[in-house]
Amino acid sequence: MSKKGFDNVASFYDLLATLVFGKQLRKAQLHFLDSLPSNARILILGGGTGWLLKALLTAKEVKEVIYIDASQKMLDLTFQKNQESPQFEKVQLIHGTEEEANQYQNIDVLITPFILDVFTAQYLPIAIQNLSKILKKNGTWLLVDFDAKNTAKGISKAFVQLMYWFFTWTCSIPAKKLEDFEKEISHNYWNRIEAKYFYFNLVKAVLLKNREQ
After folding, report:
1. How far apart are CA 83 and CA 97, in angstroms?
2. Which residues share a beta bridge with 155?
3. How far apart are CA 110 and CA 32, in angstroms?
4. Which end of the chain is least crowded, N or C, by CB within 10 Å?
5. Beta-strand (E) ranges in the chain?
6. pTM for the predicted model, two decimal places
7. CA gap 73, 58 in Å, rounded
């Protein structure tokens, strides 16, 4: 992902998501927030416009939040939404990609909301392996994204292909199709603890725990 990220759609991204999916994408991202540990070091990769950070800071007492997004415009919106929060002093806003995320260690919680779907099949195993290394033993990974198995045929497949066409055109994302990233994650010493499906089972929120390697 380039350092421009979703700059071209930042101003209307949330509106677009609501028009297409209603409240389902937000429900998916919020579903497991209460299950996350308190006073944790949390890294959010690809957090978007900042509404998720606002929900997190309201729901949980945090030790630190490292908030990374490839779009500076998304970070600007995040600052505007969260600067008045009593916990905002614990937040680092970082303009970057998974490469910047890989510089951190001993993270308690990793949150990846609709970001793994921009990685190509060739790069996805590398990205997942590197992201796995930033979490401490018994760390938690909250994955929220589209489900590859439930979007593999029929109207669902065409719908996902249309989304990839749109974001390739507007944001030059590298991926051209949806990969089964949860399967790849399971190869990297992660266990699924719980999952919840949304929007006709096309979207999933998955809580994972790493296991001893």
Report:
1. 22
2. none
3. 12
4. C
5. 41-45, 64-69, 91-95, 107-113, 135-146, 190-198, 203-210
6. 0.93
7. 23
Ranked by mean pLDDT, the top range of 68-82, 118-132, 141-155 is: 68-82
Return d(Cα 71, Cα 114) in angstroms, integer. Answer: 14
- The predicted pLDDT at position 3 comes to 55
Q: Tell me how far apart the alpha carbons of residues 113 and 111 are, in angstroms, rounded to a whole number.
A: 6
Neighbour-count burial for 166-180, b at 16+ CB within 10 Å, e otherwise: ebeeebebebeebbe
Treating both helix axes as pointing N-terminal to C-terminal, what angle do 51-59 and 72-82 enclose, rounded to 10 degrees?
A: 40
Q: Is 163 exposed, middle or buried (0-12, 13-18, 19+ CB in 10 A)?
A: middle
| Backbone dihedral angles phi then psi of residue 84, each to the nearest 5 degrees | -90, -5
Show Cβ contacts of residue 31 under 8 Å, excluding neighbours closer than 6 positions. Answer: 196, 198, 205
**CA atoms 172, 177, 183, 188: torsion sign:** negative
Average pLDDT, the chain: 91
Cβ–Cβ < 8 Å for 104, 132: no
Give me the residue spans of the domains in the chain. Answer: 7-210
CATH fold of 7-210 reads: Rossmann fold (3.40.50)
Task: Output the six-digit token pair for 192.
Answer: 């699924």
